[in-house]
């Protein structure tokens, strides 16, 4: 499950209907995402001001939701990083800029 490309993409066409609650929050809430290190480590500053480390390769996050529940599909932070990678908003896990 470590390959970002293998996880289901959330597209603008799928946003309005049928989104799981965490995915909806991942896309609707204000979050700042930045690459911390090559290999898939990102920092996510949430709307609440909390900062979490997300590893898209290991599929982990330091947020309480991930630490206590490990939801299928990941927490909202992991989902947001996936979305931003797939839409070219942040560098890919290998550190390369989107083409």
Automatic annotation (TrEMBL):
Write down the InterPro entries for this protein, in alphabetical order.
Znf_SWIM
UniProt region (Disordered), positions on chain: 1-22
**One term of GO molecular function:** zinc ion binding
The family database entries (Pfam families) matched by this protein are listed as: SWIM (PF04434)
- Judging by the UniProt lineage, the source's domain of life is Archaea
Q: Does the keyword Zinc apply?
A: yes
Keywords, in A-Z order: Metal-binding, Zinc, Zinc-finger
The SWIM-type domain extends over: 52-86
Name this protein carries in UniProt? SWIM-type domain-containing protein
This chain's source organism reads Halarchaeum acidiphilum MH1-52-1
């Amino acid at each position: 499950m470590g390959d970002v490309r293998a996880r289901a993409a959330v597209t603008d066409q799928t946003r309005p209907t049928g989104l799981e609650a965490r995915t909806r929050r991942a896309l609707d809430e204000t979050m700042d995402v930045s690459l911390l290190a090559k290999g898939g480590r990102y920092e996510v500053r949430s709307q609440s001001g909390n900062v979490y480390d997300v590893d898209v390769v290991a599929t982990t996050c330091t947020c309480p939701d991930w630490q206590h529940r490990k939801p299928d599909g990941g927490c909202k932070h992991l989902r947001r990083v996936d979305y931003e990678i797939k839409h070219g908003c942040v560098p890919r896990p290998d550190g390369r800029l989107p083409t």
